[in-house]
C-alpha cells in the first residue's frame, strides 16, 4: 500500500503543480511543498527542508531548517567547499621519488625514498609510470632499502570518531599519505572454459604480496562467486568461493586493504622490479633525508577534477584524504582530522554560514554522529554561488540529476531533468539531497533536504526529494 501511495502521489503531482502555477502566488508555492512532505511515513520532527533564491539568499521555504540532523554523504559538500577555499581549484597532489647515497652508473648505493603527498587518486597506472620514469633515468639497482615517507599525515588511518569497526567493503577503506587504488584491491573473475573448471581469477595490482586460493567453480547453481581476504604476516591471502555459469560475463570484486603502508610498499617494489629496477633491501618507514636527490615528481590532476569524481560517485576515501590534506597544507604536517575539520568550521563561519548545531566528525558523512542543518547547507550553497574564484567548480562537481553520478536515475521523467545539480546522502534510515535547480523563470535556487528516522523506504524518500526539486523548478518563480 505504501508503494502504491507513492505512485499515486507521483502521478498526481503534475496536476497539482499546474494548478499552483495558474494561481501563481507565494502561498501556492509554500502549499505545494507542504503537500509534498505530508506523507505519513515521514518523521515530521526529523525532516529539514529549506529553499533559497540564488544568489540573494532570500528564504522561500523552511521546514525545520534549524534542526541539526545527520546529513550522510551530503557532508561532502562541506569538504568540497573547504578544500576549494584553502587549496584552490588548481591544487595538485604530489608524490616524490628520491635516492640517497652515491650513484655509480645505474647503481644507487643507498635507498630509494618515496614521499607521499596524500594523493587520493594514485592508481596502479600512476605507479607504473613512476617506475618507468625511474628506469628511464638510468637506475637499475638499489643496494639499500625502499623507504616510504608518509609523514604528510598523522598515524590515524581512519577518522578518530569512526572507531575500530570495519569490514572489507571498499567504501570503508583506510587512509594514508601514500595510498594506491583507494587502498582497495580488485579481484577480476571470469568463468572457466567449461562446467567443472575453476573460475579464472586475478588480482589488481599484482604483486607477491597477494596469494590467491581459488575454490570458485564454473557451473550452474550454487552461491554466486565471492572473494574475501585473510591477512598473514608477509602476504594477504584472497580466497575465491562460489560459482559462475559458463555463459556469465566477467566481473570485478573490490575489497579494502588492512595495511595501506605495506600495500603501497609492495606495489611500488613490484612495479619497479617489472620496470627493471631491483631493490636489494627491505620496505621501511622513514623521512626524506637532507641531501637526497630528487628523481621524479608525479602530480595529480587538478583538485577541481578530483572533486567532480568525489561528488558524482560519493567516494568516502577521497573525502577523508582531502580533509587531512587541507590540514597538512594550512596547519602544517602531519595533517590530522582534528585540524582539517576545525578549518572546515572556520571556513563556514567566515563565509557567513550559520553553524548552530553543526557537528563534524568526518569529511565523508559516513559517521552518523555528524550534524548539519538545512539552514547551514542552504547558507553554504548561497556562499559558494557568490565565489567567482571557486563557486563554478563547486557547482560543476555536483552530479546532474537524471544524467550522471549518483543522481543519474533521479528526475528521469521530471521537467527538471538535467536542470538540477545535487549531492545525495544515504545511511541507515537517513537520506539527504542538496544542490541547485534552475526555475522556469530563469533564476537559480538552492535546496537542502535532510530526512532522518524516516519510515519511508529509500525509494519513497528519494521520490519525496525529487518532488521537492521539481516543485521548486516549476513554482519558485511564481512566489509573488
Structure description:
The protein has 480 residues and is of the alpha/beta class. It has 3 domains: 263 residues, Beta-lactamase (3-Layer(aba) Sandwich); 103 residues, D-tyrosyl-trna(Tyr) Deacylase, Chain: A (3-Layer(bba) Sandwich); 96 residues, no CATH class. Helices cover 31% and strands 23% of the residues. The chain has a 6-stranded antiparallel beta sheet, sandwiched between helices. Strands 18-8-6-3-19 form a 5-stranded mixed beta sheet, with helices on one face. A 4-stranded mixed beta sheet has the order 4-5-7-17. Helix 3 runs antiparallel to helix 6 and helix 4 packs across helix 5. The longest helix is centred in the N-terminal third of the chain and has 22 residues. The N terminus is likely disordered.
Structural key phrases:
single chain, 480 residues, alpha/beta, Beta-lactamase, D-tyrosyl-trna(Tyr) Deacylase, Chain: A, six-stranded antiparallel beta sheet, five-stranded mixed beta sheet, 11 helices, globular, disordered N terminus
The CATH architecture of the largest domain can be named as: 3-Layer(aba) Sandwich
Any idea of the CATH topology of the largest domain? Beta-lactamase
Distance between the termini: 37 Å
Q: Tell me the number of helical segments per DSSP (H or I, 4 or more residues long).
A: 11
Summarize the amount of helix as a percent range. Answer: 25-40%
How many structural domains are formed by the residues?
A: 3
Spatial strand arrangement across the major sheet: 2-1-23-22-21-20
CATH class group of the largest domain: Alpha Beta
Q: Estimate the strand proportion.
A: 15-25%
Report the mean per-residue pLDDT as an integer. 93
- The whole-angstrom Rg is 25 Å
- The number of distinct β-strands equals 23
Major sheet characteristics: 6 strands, antiparallel
Name the overall outline: globular
Structural class: alpha/beta
Q: Provide the low-confidence segments as ranges.
A: 1-23
Superfamily (CATH H level) name of the largest domain: DD-peptidase/beta-lactamase superfamily
